[in-house]
Amino acid sequence: MKTTHISFKLNGKNVEADVTTAQRLIDLLREEFDLTGTKEGCGVGECGACTIIMNKRAVNSCLVLAAQADGSEITTVEGLAKGENLHPLQKSFIEHGAVQCGFCTPGMLMSSEALLQENPHPTEEEIKDAIAGNLCRCTGYKQIIDAVKEA
Ligand code: FES
Ligand code: FES
Prior knowledge:
five-stranded mixed beta sheet, globular
């Protein structure tokens, strides 16, 4: 199988990989880099469980080819905490009971982080828009919105 050599920045570190033409970014992250915090729900761009930040934008990693990561800067949920210190969003999600089964949480965190990096004081509407592509079956969204507001 034909492979391409790519290099990119992953959670602040320069990394390299050999990827196949059809390989998806979500699989590269989970299988080659063991970053299994990024979840696969639907696999077709509808649930947001696989959201990562790529070049400052929240993207569904199930819809991106691994080869497209070449030269990019990627942050996954594993890149949020600093050692033992949780990221303010992670703390706020816990404090507000915004994590129930937790399956949507990594994607919610990454969509919220992309929003806060661009707009540190979003309105409720802006938060709703930012997480519109992230489905949660458990929380009814209120706790998540409150958590992002406070963070
Ligand atoms: S797994 Fe990517 S959007 Fe659902
Ligand atoms: S906490 Fe279960 S899907 Fe959101």
